[in-house]
Amino acid sequence: MARYKLTYFNLRGRAELTRLTLSAAGQDFEDNRISYEDFLKIKNDLPQNQLPILEFDGQTLPQSLTIVRYLAREYGLYGNNNLESATVDIVLDTLVDTYSALVKVFSEKDETIKKQLAKTLSDTGMPQLISIFGKILRQNNGGDGWIVGTKMTVADLALYTLFDDLTGGVYGSDLAKSFLADEKLKSHFDRVKQQKRIADWIEKRPTTER
Ligand SMILES: N[C@@H](CCC(=O)N[C@@H](CS)C(=O)NCC(=O)O)C(=O)O
């Protein structure tokens, strides 16, 4: 039986970075994907009434990035010193900013406002955020390696999963334009994807729209 049980919906969403982290760490896990109806049955018993949660050794952790940071510290995927960990945190926090910008647009109900917001996001907001990731990547080894140090961390996985979402289509491919135009970001994406444990996970994971 797997030591870790990750419970979330049948989506990549807020759980995919944990799935990638557990895969990179070589840890077997139960990928428990539940329906919204089943979520409602357990909602009140969850630590923060939301998913994802990670259960292991009698513990239950909520908050997707708390889970990711916990696992990263456990399995050496959080950089080699405090400063490297801070750079990993910069990437994770910028990831949160990026998804907040995406959610703001995609949760807008008024179609006219939504169109305007989407245009601003793809013309200026997203290129700006993507150029920040490009700058961070280039600070180490000119952008030809990992975000920090000489091995992959959860910062690399975070960037991978963001661009996986953006190029996957559900948010509209326009948003990925400046990512695709940046050779260093593009080859970093492929570098992560080609890591054996990551490639194995991508190969076996269920296909979902987001
Ligand atoms: N900050 C939390 C947010 C968790 C969250 O928003 N979960 C959503 C799914 S992505 C959820 O459980 N929604 C159902 C609900 O709130 O009733 C995290 O990163 O884990």
UniProtKB/TrEMBL annotation:
Class of the enzyme per the UniProt entry, highest EC level: transferase
Protein name: glutathione transferase
CDD domains, per the entry: GST_C_Sigma_like, GST_N_Sigma_like
GO biological process, one term: glutathione metabolic process
Record-stated family: Belongs to the GST superfamily.
Domain GST N-terminal: from-to ranges: 2-79
GO function terms (MF aspect): glutathione transferase activity; structural constituent of eye lens
Domain GST C-terminal: 81-210
Name of one Pfam family that matches: GST_N
Catalysed transformations (reactions): RX + glutathione = an S-substituted glutathione + a halide anion + H(+)
Keywords, sorted A to Z: Eye lens protein, Transferase
InterPro entries: Glutathione-S-Trfase_C-like, Glutathione-S-Trfase_C_sf, Glutathione_S-Trfase, Glutathione_S-Trfase_N, GST_C, GST_superfamily, Thioredoxin-like_sf
Superkingdom of the organism of origin: Eukaryota
PANTHER family reported for this sequence: GLUTATHIONE S-TRANSFERASE, HEMATOPOIETIC PROSTAGLANDIN D SYNTHASE
